[in-house]
Amino acid sequence: MIQRILGISTDIVFTPRISHLLKRFPPNGSGFQRLTTKFMHQHELDELKTLIDQRRDPTTYIAGIWATKECVWKALASFVDPKLMPPAVNVYTRLCYKAKDPRGAPLLVFDANFPISSPLHSLFYKEVICRRQIKVLLSISHDKDYLVAFMTILENVN
Length: 158
Known about the structure:
Keywords: Transferase
Oligomer: single chain
Number of domains: 1
Largest sheet: 3 strands, antiparallel
Domain 4'-phosphopantetheinyl transferase: 10-77
Protein name: Holo-[acyl-carrier-protein] synthase
Pfam family, one: ACPS
CATH class: Alpha Beta
Number of strands: 5
GO molecular function: holo-[acyl-carrier-protein] synthase activity; magnesium ion binding
Strand content: 25-35%
Helix content: 40-55%
Structural class: alpha+beta
Number of helices: 7
């Protein structure tokens, strides 16, 4: 099967910036919820709650979500007609979410409920996500103060 590259993107996050936000908006406060719901899908919010309930530091997780969402926005914007493109908040919170494959590698999942949760953008979902049968390659790496994400969006060419 031949695949064509539709979009490529990268994003880097300075993780101390996330740590600073967590100090300003502690996980048990309403500001934290307002902040995270601006860029996280419900699946990611559920995973974040689990991390917090287990008293694990969510800094790297949050940085990974942010970098992934920035990557998907940039990659989509490189080939999608701006008139068809949903607002960033819809892409971040409804279109897709970061998950892990069985080996623990990051992957991007498109939410099949997007046309229902964002009916004004159902044509985008149908034409860009479904009809093109796109595949997303996502790589995330982090070391000390930085987290970097790379994304490639491919489509099958028959």
